[in-house]
Amino acid sequence: MIKLISIVKFISLFVLLLILGGCWDQKETEEQAYVIAIGLDKAEESENLVKVTYLISNPEAGTAAVGGGSSSEPPREIISFEAEDFVTSRNLANTVIAKQITYDILQIIVVSEDFARDDDFVRWIYDATKSMEIRRDSKLLITKEDTLTFLEINQPKLETRPHEYFKMLFARGKETAMLPVSDLNTFFRITEADADLFLGIYGTTEKSEKQHGKEPDQVIAGEFHYEGETNPTEFAGAAVFKEGKMIDVITIEDTRLAFLLNPTMNGVDILASFPDPFDENYHISTRVNKISDIKIKMDLKKEQPEINVTLPVSIDLLSNHSMTEYQLNEQNKEKLKKSFEDTLEKLFKDFVKKTQEEYKTEPFGWSLIARKKFLTIPEWEDFDWMKTYPDMKVNITVNVELGSFGRQGGLPSLEEVRD
Amino acid sequence: MLRKRFKKLLEDSPPPEDKKSSIKDIKVKEAIIDPNLDKTLEIFQSIYSYPNNQDVKIRKMNISGLRKNGAILYIDTITNPMVIEEHIISPLLTNEDKTKEISEIVTAQSITPKIVINEALIEINKGNVALFIEGESRVYLIGASQFEARSVEKPENENVVKGPKEAFIEKAATNISLIRKKIKNENLVVESLVISERSNNNLFLVYEKDLVNNKILQNVKNRLDSLNVDAIQNLSLLEQQIEERKYSIFPTILYTERPDRAASFIEDGHIVLLMDNSPDSLVLPATFWSFYHNSEDHYLRFPYGNFTRLLRFLALFITLFTSSLYVAVVTFHSEMVPPDLLLAIAATREKVPFPAAFEVLVMELAFELIREAGLRVPSPIGPTIGIVGALILGQAAVQANIVSPIVVIVVALGGLSSFAIGDISMNFAIRISRFLLLVSASFFGLYGITAFFTAGMFYLVSIKSFGVPYLSPMTPTYVSSGDTVFRRILKNEIFRPGYLKPKDMEKR
After folding, report:
1. How many Å apart are CA B196 and CA B191, to the nearest integer?
2. Contact B443 A21 (CB under 8 A)
């Protein structure tokens, strides 16, 4: 009998442990609505409100459902409303949406340009640090129009699930260096360090007027013109943030330059064209690669601080419209190399000048290196990178190493062909 | 407090029962053989309930040379008629020489005189022939036993592709011979012990006397001596009698049907137990690793052997964790799953009526049911189980939206992997732990899994098998051949396991 009692006591103790201790934050997957993107806009009337837009992914879209029931449901659901912030908005959304709103697989935070340029933007975006679920590697995307329009018009044709589209687009953009990395963590880090510029991904669904005379890579989102049956959304260039506030938009070309000068970023598939030194009518298409780490030497103790940057790149030739002989001609090679170096250095110089004069600080992450030159943080703060950078002397040297000249190195001499 | 409660649970043993044999019977059996032949036969007849007991045979005869009456008594079904005919009866009847002793007349293999009735009974029950001579107060016991047994066959459970393919059979003498075939050494000792009181089951302790640690040997013998039961039919039952922790889910004595495996354990300084009626052997002490290993690991070349070890190691963890991780991640930590996978899981679960934990539990139970049913089903209808199981669980359940396809994958993967652990006891231990892990995962998520696994590791470290820590030589560390998760090349396996404290440490 005593044995029985103790057994019963044991079992009830164990069951109590499970009942009292277990299952607290349990939530079945199918009971949640997965937000892929949060859009943030200025509220129309009140300053204390923000317009929140949710892009919710439908798990059932595109699956071959076994056992009856067609999956003709749309792949996404979009809802937009005004709320106090995008944390409490989760409950408000439940007035319309049946499932619990979760940010578990949130991929991007979309902010309209209008809102990003607002002084108060920082206040709202910092809510993201409070929420447990929002990951720091979520991307920050800035749109030209309001986010609801952007998300509604953006309908990828080939990727059924919205997160897939964004994920692949951003990954590819990073490889080609046409889109900055732009994750939430970098944004917070740069804003808090108060020294560099942050580059955010810039996208739009609105086409702007075609501007003639621009080279193909000197465009920002909306300026790239294309035809055909596809998604009207385009992502190009970068939104420049200074002190947590958007100040400008830079072109694809400038984004790439920033990529090349930034020791923390690495594009691997940068295709670019350069003027042909042998025939000014033509351009040479190339693939540019950083060979090794960029070398940055700083002398900050001088009256006029000086930064010397050496950038080793390799350039592969992908086209040769002037049909110049390079393979066996060292002189031509030398000339080509020199021309590349000059072109690049001029581009860099112009861009650095622009950052010094227009933005007063740089998007290259150089302040991280400069920090190491100071013993204490107060010393570094006294130095005030943002104040000193515009007057610094920045020398950029590019060391070009010619890579391959294509699968077939030599081309026939044009005269002989035409003969 | 918990400890006290546990103790109370364990110590509450039933009161001892009275011995059933009457005192008179015991007295008769302890007496000395009477020189009067008729009287002696009468006693034996009453002990064996003579003519009622069909297979007990008594043949009286006149031993011509000695001019004395005699009688032989034997149990027909367990003796060899040829031996009785040619080596006992015929020489006794045809002998003319008056000077010859009995042991000189009988030409059988062995002949031993006994004085006490009890001792004679044991031998007769073993299939020996008792020879009574008029006027002699002793009985001659002549070896003529022959028990029915099958021949040596292939192992059923511990299959190998490369290596010997003999297995133990139900006859201990054959089994010993199989071991002697592998260890031709005079130091190999086969000790015999009677371990039960009523059925007089015989047990053989096999060890190498110049290797085995005396303390461990003594420990084993003590434990065998202290057994106080009427009958222990075979080693599977003996294992449960002599193990330390009878409620533990982890086995502490290795059970193998391969003589080569038993022999290699003997060569390492272990003790092997053999018994009639057991087509297997018990190896003790045993560590966790001996259950995880397989004899083929060493028969295969180093890279191949370790590859199978790696697979088995993975299978072990897959079996333990797949279903519980699935439940934990899906119900508690959905943010851990990559978006594509999470959406796929959410999509398949959309129409399933049960919570994920329940769904997995049901499928796991179904899998175990198929397994158990498949084992017990008569072989002609065996394939049916496979078809029904695969169809009902794999296809129909998914199509009817009772379970999601991902759960079928998870359960099937875990179930399949569980077969990679060959030892049946360890297999059960892992399968039961899997259910416990599943329960803790469905209540506490990853925290539950971690807590349970940690507690399990604590427990594993605390177990001992005949004084040897369960996870040795890894934890605690001992000098050994380093044969734990992976094995070394044979040249580098120099030492015998240090946890056994063998008399000779080096293998060369």
Report:
1. 16
2. yes
Q: Please indicate, yes or no, if residue A3 is contained in any of the structural domains.
A: no
SS3 content of chain B, % helix, strand, coil (to 5): 50, 15, 35
Q: Does any CB of chain B come closer than 8 Å to the CB of residue A57? A: yes
Hey, where are the domains in chain B?
23-142, 172-286, 309-465
Which of A150-164, B210-224, B375-389 shows the highest mean pLDDT? B210-224
CATH of the domain at A392: 3.30.300.210
Domain that holds residue A349: 269-419
Q: Do A247 and A373 belong together in one domain? A: no
The beta-carbon neighbor of A63 closest among B9, B347, B400 is: B347
Give the CA distances from residue B275 to residues B20, B180, B203, in Å, rounded to whole numbers and listed in that order: 26, 15, 5
Residue ending a domain, choose from A222, A252, A282: A252
A59–B344 C-beta distance less than 8 A: yes
| A151-165 pLDDT tens trace | 999 988 888 888 889
Residue A265 has what pLDDT?
79
Which one, of B306, B414, B400, lies nearest residue B366 by Cα? B414
Q: Are residues A233 and A280 in the same domain?
A: no
Cβ-in-10-Å burial (0-12, 13-18, 19+) of B257 comes to buried
Q: What is the pLDDT of residues B251-270, one digit of tens each?
A: 999 999 999 999 999 999 99
What is the pLDDT averaged over residues A197-224? Answer: 82
Q: Which of B9, B346, B445 is opposite residue A59, by nearest beta carbon?
A: B346
Average pLDDT over residues B305-319: 95
A5 touches chain B (CB under 8 A): no
Interface test with A, best of B3, B4, B12, B335 (most A CBs within 10 A): B335
Q: Given CB atoms, is A163 within the 8 Å cutoff of chain B?
A: yes
Distance from the B11 Cα atom to the nearest Cα atom in chain A, whole angstroms = 10
Cα–Cα dist B216/B500, whole Å = 8
| Residue B22: pLDDT band with limits 50, 70, 90 | low
Inside any domain, residue A141: yes
